Every structure is written in C-alpha cells, then in structure tokens.
C-alpha cells in the first residue's frame, strides 16, 4: 500500500484491509466525486443496471459492494426489496447518514452473511474489480441466488472504438487523478481507480469468468461506448 499526506490507496493485489481502508478514506465525498469524474454518467449507468436486472415488486435483490448505498437506492425504485452489503464501515456509515431508509450491512463479497438461494437477483456495481478474488466472488454471488435468479455485474470495461479508447485511457491516467485532487477526500484512491481499470479484463474475458463461476446464458451490453459494461447471467 502506498501512503501519502493526502491518504492511501490499495495495491493491485487488493488486500481486503487495504481496500476497506481506502474506501473509508473516500466515503464522505464518494457520491459527489463519482458524479463529477463520470460527467454525471453514473446516474444513467445505475438506471441501466436496474433495468437489466428486470426486478419485480416484492422480489429480493442483494447489492454487493454497495458502499454508500447509492446503487442500492436505485434498485429499490423497482419495488423490489433491496439490501446492500459492503466491507468498508466508513462507506456504510456515510450511506446511513445520507440515505437512512436504505438497508445496508457489513459483509464480505467472499463470505456473504446469507443462506444459500436467499435472493431472486444479485448485483455488484463498480466493486467486483476491487475484490481480491474475482472468481470466488462470482461463485459466492451464485451461492446466495436461487436457481433461475439473475446476476448483473456493472463494471468499468474497455471502450470498443480504438480512437475513443486512446482518449479515454489518457483521461484515466492523467486527468482523472488531477480532477480527483480538487474534489476527493483521498485523491490517491483515484490513482488506484485508474490503475485497476486498466488492469481489468475486457468484456469477453470477464464473460468467460462469469460463465465459469456457475452462471448460464451470459451476455453483456456496453454503456458509453464500453467505458462500462453490464454482464448478466442466470443462476443454473
Ligand atoms: C467503487 S465502490 C462502489 C459502490 C457502489 N456500488 C456504487 O455503485 O457506487 C466499491 C465498493 O466495494 C467495496 N468492496 C471492496 N471489496 C469488497 C469485498 N470483498 N466485499 C464487500 N465490499 C467490498 C468497497 O468497500 C467499496 O465500498
């Protein structure tokens, strides 16, 4: 882990205590920073995630890596019962203050505090990339989902147009950390964000890993030209 006077960031091997500490450090201004750095796109990515899950009123949906509950709140708009789980107590406390009506609890994506087949749908937004063991997390998501239940992973991905990809990668590695210095409570965390996005598998590679973890009918849809991808699957 690297430490600076402004804060700390996790290393790319993503040790859980480093990841939790890093998110504790960004919690207070997380929602605002997200919206600024994504040029407001985060709202439409969340709406698309909710739509892709096809939630019906009364269904139970789990949002893993829920952070401040901003993604969980969006899911509840469907009329489903949405609960969020996260490793960072700082993010959970910030979420409790910002949106007390959203059920949020402490939980590790690799050992979820729920019985087998508890949920009709599960989702993870901008968090799978932070979990130390991606494949184990995808299997754990399958464990808590009922047979026939749905998964949607919302995660940064690889822009499909080569020219746009070059511009985007330059934004990620140069401008994003600079902008984060003006809005975030821990700008170092946004250097990690840029590095972890660059190191993340592309759409096809992630689809293969979702399928290998016990999910059927795996497919993906690109958002904002592939800056983000929604991967979906059905619990076999
Ligand atoms: C970028 S935030 C995403 C928050 C929210 N889902 C959203 O869409 O804004 C990533 C979150 O994943 C959480 N996280 C990382 N590793 C985790 C793990 N192993 N189990 C649960 N949460 C984890 C972090 O604490 C952080 O709150």
TrEMBL record:
Pathway(s) served:
Quinol/quinone metabolism; menaquinone biosynthesis; menaquinol from 1,4-dihydroxy-2-naphthoate: step 2/2
Top-level EC class as recorded in UniProt? transferase
Q: Which is one GO molecular function term here?
A: demethylmenaquinone methyltransferase activity
Which named protein is this?
Demethylmenaquinone methyltransferase
Q: Per the record, what are the reactions this protein catalyses?
A: a 2-demethylmenaquinol + S-adenosyl-L-methionine = a menaquinol + S-adenosyl-L-homocysteine + H(+)
General function of this protein? Methyltransferase required for the conversion of demethylmenaquinol (DMKH2) to menaquinol (MKH2).
Enumerate the Pfam families for this protein.
Ubie_methyltran
- Natural source organism: Micromonospora orduensis
Q: What is its EC number?
A: 2.1.1.163
Keywords of the record, alphabetical order, are: Menaquinone biosynthesis, Methyltransferase, S-adenosyl-L-methionine, Transferase
> Binding positions for S-adenosyl-L-methionine?
68, 86, 108-109, 125
UniProt lineage: Bacteria, Bacillati, Actinomycetota, Actinomycetes, Micromonosporales
Family to which the UniProt record says this protein belongs:
Belongs to the class I-like SAM-binding methyltransferase superfamily. MenG/UbiE family.
- Biological process (GO) annotations? menaquinone biosynthetic process; methylation
Q: Where are the transmembrane segments?
A: none
């Amino acid at each position: 882990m690297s430490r600076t006077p402004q804060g700390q960031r996790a290393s790319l091997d993503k040790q859980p205590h480093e990841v939790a500490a890093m998110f504790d450090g960004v919690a207070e201004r997380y929602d605002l920073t997200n919206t600024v750095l994504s040029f407001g796109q985060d709202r439409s990515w969340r709406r698309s995630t909710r739509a892709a899950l096809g939630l019906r009123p009364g269904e139970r949906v789990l949002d893993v890596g829920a952070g401040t509950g901003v993604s969980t709140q969006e899911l509840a708009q469907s009329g489903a019962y949405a609960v969020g789980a996260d490793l960072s107590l700082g993010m959970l406390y910030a979420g409790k203050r910002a949106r007390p009506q959203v059920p949020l609890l402490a939980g590790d994506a690799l050992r979820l505090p729920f019985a087998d087949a508890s949920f009709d749908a599960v989702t993870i937004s901008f968090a799978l990339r932070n979990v130390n063991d991606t494949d184990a997390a995808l299997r754990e998501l399958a464990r808590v989902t009922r047979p026939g239940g749905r998964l949607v992973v919302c995660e940064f991905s690889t822009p499909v147009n080569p020219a746009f990809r070059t511009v985007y990668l330059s934004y990620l590695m140069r401008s994003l950390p600079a902008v984060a210095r003006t809005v975030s409570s821990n700008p170092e965390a946004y250097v990690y964000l840029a590095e972890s996005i660059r190191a993340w598998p592309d759409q096809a590679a992630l689809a293969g890993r979702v399928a290998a973890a016990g999910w059927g009918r795996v497919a993906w849809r690109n958002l904002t030209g592939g800056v983000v991808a929604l991967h979906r699957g059905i619990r076999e």
